[in-house]
Write a structure and sequence with these properties.
The structure is a single chain. With about 300 residues, this protein is an alpha/beta fold. About 35% of the residues lie in helices and about 10% in strands. The protein has ten helices and ten strands. The strands form two sheets. A six-stranded parallel beta sheet has the order 7-6-5-8-9-10, with helices on both faces. A four-stranded mixed beta sheet has the order 1-3-4-2, sandwiched between helices. The longest helix has 16 residues. The structure holds NADP nicotinamide-adenine-dinucleotide phosphate. NADP nicotinamide-adenine-dinucleotide phosphate binds next to α5, α6 and α9.
């Protein structure tokens, strides 16, 4: 469920699993305006859904609607996955946190969150899952830079002294001596300008992660790769969180295989401004006005 939602790669991803595991079922994008979220979530059980995922802008509000949520979701303040329990009640969790760590570890098995200072840029929903995951994995110093300082302060208050909020102007200097850089802002997404960040002070050994996955290689990742930094794109995070959802919904534990990745990659533009999904192609841009893209959005 999202608003808008038609850009989502989740149907391609989950329907791949249905086919792969020969399960009868289908995953459908549900364009739900915020004022209908409660009714839509309550309709899942009578309609026979096993659960759903939630995306912008529903993650926070849904937490107040479900009957129960796990500790991680409550700490983060947002749910991204709902399970319909046998009695029809709703249970929520945040599977983005698992996606973030598992994705890095699959590509860099020796990675450790406590290897040195981490710089997280952004303090929105994605950042909350990233910071939670880093803290859980033992990160001792997380330098948090967000355009709106108050949001970084609020996140730091919630997650404790290892999270150090910074002024937005200090983001370039914060890279000095860092072992990890994570972009969690929407900058670098198709239709958005690149993240304005100078990498000069970032050690070339630092791992650079972008959770944006449209395009697959954001301008930040291109710049990092060109100066020799190891990089991780955001698609793996999406794939890994989907696996967590399948365990919860169907008791199946899928793997992120090269074939799965290739299937979803084929639907994504590789670089901003290249091929599938470019502005104008109508395949993945979130409309600024959802109603302009979704027929009869009120129904
Ligand atoms: N790979 C995955 O599985 C995954 C999971 C979650 C999210 N994501 C991606 O992560 C991105 C962010 O998602 P989200 O849910 O965290 O969104 P969000 O809650 O709306 O947060 C957006 C963040 O971007 C910052 N931002 C927006 N415009 C900016 C600008 N012009 N300059 C600097 N910062 C700016 C915001 O700063 P302010 O606080 O100042 O507004 C905020 O920190 C999206 O591309 C989303 O698709 C990927």
């Amino acid at each position: 469920m999202g608003w808008p939602v038609m850009h989502s790669r989740s149907p391609a991803l989950h329907n791949y699993f249905f086919k792969h595991y020969r399960l009868t079922g289908t995953y459908v994008p549900l364009a739900i305006p915020p004022e209908r979220l409660q009714a839509a979530l309550r309709a899942l059980a009578p309609l026979g859904f096993a659960g759903c995922n939630l995306t912008i802008p529903h993650k926070e509000r849904a937490l107040a609607i479900v009957d129960e949520a796990d500790d991680a979701a409550r700490r983060i303040g947002a749910i991204s996955c709902v399970v319909v329990r046998p009695d029809g009640s709703l249970w929520g969790t945040n599977n983005d946190i698992h996606g973030f760590g598992r994705n890095i570890l699959q590509q860099h098995p020796g990675w450790r969150a406590d290897a040195g200072p981490a710089v997280v840029v952004g303090a929105g929903g994605g950042a909350r899952a990233v910071v939670y995951s880093l803290v859980e994995r033992g990160a001792r110093e997380i330098r948090l830079a967000n355009r709106t300082r108050e949001r970084a302060d609020a996140l730091a208050r919630e997650f404790g002294s290892s999270v150090m909020p910074l002024d937005w102007e200090d983001r370039h200097r914060a890279l000095d001596g860092a072992a990890l850089l994570v972009n969690t802002t929407s900058q670098g997404m198709v239709g958005q300008p690149p993240l304005d960040l100078r990498l000069d002070l970032l050690p070339v050994t630092a791992l650079v992660v972008d959770i944006v996955y449209v395009p697959l290689e954001t301008p930040l990742l291109t710049a990092a790769r060109q100066r020799g930094n190891p990089t991780v794109d955001g698609l793996g995070m999406l794939l890994h969180q989907a696996c967590v959802a399948w365990r919860l919904w169907f008791g199946v534990d899928p793997e992120v295989t090269p074939e799965l990745r290739a299937t979803i990659e084929a639907t994504l533009p590789r670089y901003a401004g290249s091929g599938i999904g470019d502005p104008g192609s109508g395949t993945n841009l979130e409309p600024t006005n959802p109603a302009s893209r979704i027929p009869n959005p009120g129904r």
